[in-house]
Amino acid sequence: MNNIRPTAAQIAQQQAAQRQTGQTVEPQPPHGQPAEGRYGIGFGENWMPPPIKSIEATGLNIFYLSELVLKVLYFSGFKSGYGIAEAIRLPFTGVVEQVMEFLKRERQVEVRGSGGFGEGAYQYVITGAGIEKAREAMERSQYAGPAPVPLIVLNDWRSGRPLALIAADRLTAARTAAMSAVAARHYARPESERIGFVGCGVQAASHFDALRDLFPGLRLATVVGRRIEAARAFADGLRALGIEARASEEPRDAVADQDLVVTTVPNGLARPFLDANWLANGAFVAAADLGRSWRRDGLAAFARVITDEREQSVELAREGQLVSGGPYEADLADIAAGRIPRPRDPAGRTLFAFSGHGAADLAGAILIYEAALRRTAADTPLR
Questions:
Q1: Torsion angle of alpha carbons 323, 268, 133, 102, nearest 10°?
Q2: d(C-alpha 251, C-alpha 245), whole Å
Q3: Is the pLDDT of residue 29 over 90?
Q4: Complete DSSP assignment for 330-383
Q5: How does DSSP classify residue 287?
Q6: Do the Cβ atoms of 279 and 300 come closer than 8 Å?
Q7: Domains along the chain?
Q8: What does pTM read for this prediction?
């Protein structure tokens, strides 16, 4: 149960890509590189992705996986931990066990006996609160099966021939942070020193990497997460990078007096809880969570709202998914084309509310593919 093999579809896609690119020689591992590493096990047609050992490695967040498990239990009545792992095709150890602990803390599942030894044999049943949450999740999607694989297939636009399979989780995290960085470079104060994080997962980490490159004066950070343990772990990581960081259970601490604020709250939030009136003058907010964490009655505190792509954002706001439908002072195309001057009011607060779009994923995939081609001759592992 602990080492889930890739699905037949994944293997078939990878092998088809190799055959269609005319690869007939079995690639050898780079000199001095082990056969098993961060990019997988084996080479050529014998390649497999590395075993999944954590929730982060799935490219999905715990809230999505929790809803998926609740829907599985809603339809089945009860299952063992191993049965749940089999249903969603993820390992129990390191992944499903963490999801079940989260659901127990939320009182959405209970343990009703055991069919053997170890926590994987526990029999889980859904509670009344879990049923309510499952029904809410099914209003968005009734799918209850194997966890999806975040994957991008890059094809040749002329022939349709597959060129590369790319793990979408890292790419999405990097391109989302890059979009925030473009907006922040234009609207945030260059001398920014303080940064607040509401949410402390992969997106928060990628945003820190991107923003620190632009704002080398960053020295203080405040981290708020759903679980204080996760916030403390993220703060520990920042301290290891030379940032004076602290974790807090109070969301206001990560907003008030900050120069930069990054919100990455996952879907499933009961109600928004951040107030823009807490922000310092001149603060810049990157709302990578579509602004779901921000109260709409406080949006007037922003001097300007910008987004990634106007038409898409207006539609998302109309559907209730994006916090603001405008008017937008600018989108990323305006900034990149130099159509918008830098703000003249240094005290004005800026909200970058956005969802991301496919063009950014495509651009990132092309860059990764071209980098892989350049590094092939040197046998340099991609980082």
A1: -160
A2: 15
A3: no
A4: EEHHHHHTT-SPPPS-TT--EEEE----HHHHHHHHHHHHHHHHHHHTTTPPP-
A5: E
A6: no
A7: 8-147 (1.10.10.10), 169-357 (3.40.50.720)
A8: 0.71
